[in-house]
Amino acid sequence: MVDARFDVVLEGAGEGNDTIKSSVSYRLAFGQEIETLILSSSAATVTGDGNNLANTITMMGSGKATLSGHDGNDTLTGGGQDDTLFGVNDNDVLNGGGGRDILFGGFGDDTLNGGEGNDSLYGGAGDDKVNGGMGDDVYYVTDASDGVVEFAGQGEDTVKSYIADYTMTPNVEYMQLSGDALNGTGNTLDNWIAGNAQNNILNGGLGADDLEGLDGNDTLNGGSGVDALAGGLGADVLNGGSERDYFVYDVEDTADLPALGNDKINGFQSGVDKIDLARLILDFGIDREVAFSDGFVRLVAIGDDTLVQFDRDGTAGSAPPLTLATVVDASVVQSDVLVSF
């Protein structure tokens, strides 16, 4: 037992598997043959650090813990509060326990178990297995070999993908492409998938999916199910599926309107699919009752295609209309366009 942070415990090689029980924050000394650290502190925050061996570090106190394994194949287990666990090097097992935990695998082939609570899990480098457990967890995927494991009924979970091409594993609902990530594909659930500033390809797959390209010249493929496709800024390609799809237009800042247009919509079924301009009409304070009659929304037939145009000041103003989309090989009528919620 130790009760002072700078207590020194000496143990030589070959002298057994040894345990320190500490009521304070404690660091196992490098070069000392001590394998196990148990923290029993009642302090609000406590830290526990391993050495160059394969350590087992466990939080059994009532506060929040920060545990670091360092070298060796370590096993770190948090307590019931909001803990932070760092595997660092080698092949580690991190168990968050209760609370809103943050788990960093680091280098090596790690296993991360979030446990209860809304956890954040970073596999890091290596072939990691990551399981958030109960709660609404966030997985940060930075390596193509990371395996996200989520079971049905364990909350609404999000993957933040930093790799070029990622397909969502079963029972994960949401995905955000981050950094230089390019492409994302959903699963059989009703997914929300959002792109980034790159030229993304988003595939909804099965389920009723919500795809948002955000910035960049994106390609959105709804797949089966009743999907909502919002290309966002840039010249996007929106491909609907066999069921009713919604092609959604909106801007967070009205100054971004010129960057919203020039999309191409494929697979549009008049009388089935909808072009949703309700948010855009609201953004510019336009009376939905006169959206068509006063020229704020215009449908222009060009051969077999239809141009969907938006004019922020209508026929009474001087601003030219913006072509939001060319609907390919389809005749679009006013009833196909939503101007109100």
Radius of gyration: 27 Å
By DSSP (H or I, 4+ residues per run), the number of helices equals 1
In total, the number of domains comes to 1
Q: Averaging pLDDT over every residue, what do you get?
A: 93
Largest sheet: 15 strands, parallel
How many strands in all?
A: 32
Please tell me what the overall shape is.
Answer: elongated
Uncertain runs are: none
Structural class of the secondary elements?
mainly beta
Distance between the termini: 66 Å
Lateral strand order in the biggest sheet: 2-4-6-8-10-12-14-16-18-20-22-24-26-28-32
Beta content comes to 25-35%
Task: Give the % helix.
Answer: under 10%
Could you characterize what this model shows?
This protein is mainly beta. The protein has one domain (19-290). It has one helix and 32 strands. The protein has one helix spanning 278-283, and strands spanning 19-22, 26-27, 36-39, 45-49, 56-59, 64-68, 75-77, 84-86, 93-95, 102-104, 111-113, 120-122, 129-131, 138-141, 147-149, 158-161, 165-167, 174-177, 183-185, 192-194, 201-203, 210-212, 219-221, 228-230, 237-239, 246-248, 263-266, 274-276, 297-302, 305-310, 322-327, 337-338. The strands form three sheets. It has a 15-stranded parallel beta sheet with strand order 2-4-6-8-10-12-14-16-18-20-22-24-26-28-32. The protein has a nine-stranded mixed beta sheet with strand order 17-19-21-23-25-27-31-30-29, with no helix packed on it. An eight-stranded parallel beta sheet has the order 1-3-5-7-9-11-13-15, with no helix packed on it. The longest helix has 6 residues, at 278-283. The termini are far apart. The mean pLDDT is 93.
